[in-house]
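Extended Data, panel c. Modelled sequence:
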Amino acid sequence: MLKIRRIKIFDNYNSAYYLNIGVWLLIIQFLSGCAYKKTVAKYHPLDADTIIKSIKERNKNIRDLRGIANIQIISDNLNERIREAIVINGNSLIRLELLNIIGQPSLIMVSDSKTVTIYNISENSFYHGDASPETIAKITGIYMTPHDIINLITGKQITTDFKITDLSFKNESRQYMLKVQSVDSDIYEEIWLDSANLSATEVKRFDDKGMAISFTSFSDYRKVGSHFFPFRIKMLIPSQGLSMSIEYVYVDLNRGVEESLFDLIIPEDAEAVEAVELR
């Protein structure tokens, strides 16, 4: 029996036809892509005055804070994890409450940046004295003033008189690097800021010989009211062999804080002790 074979005479033609269409589409896409790249606006970095103004505006806008944070402190002879309730009013008033496992305060510290009072509730003992970094180090293991602590946990930058020594834009990371120096000392800082919203991402402090004093990073920015706030802060102090991380679980800004919270009333039968005994 004779079998008839059907020949598709258009197969080769159709293949060539569709191949030509594909080639032309690729060419058009390539050319349009090139044209698009040519029309992208070039990024124009901001000047130093604009950046400084933004930093100062942010500092001014954080008037008070209430928060709860998990804090870890690691050094050569210390590895401590604690949870603290934090209350701040302005640039000088701070109240820290060390919370126990059921969320109640076991130790309270208040300071006006000149004096500091600490009350150990469980042992009914207290300390009252000068709010020097030496005193704070005896209590917390960290050589900082209460004012330094306020700036750290609120993410504030450039709170003293300074002069600008350098400003550059790092295209690969899309960040600004602002270098400033204190007018009262030879200490200088490199402040790295996200170009999208000028939020600080890292601050490096150096002495006059270029030796590192501290490295601090700010991340996990979240919207709190009308402000972006860093919920994760990490600090490294090489000379002390110390690192500290702060992770907020709750933050509230600018809701008003009563100054009476910073008047710590000590029971009459409480025992006065040295600062180091409260650790």
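The chain is about 20% helix and 45% strand. This feature is highlighted in the accompanying rendering.
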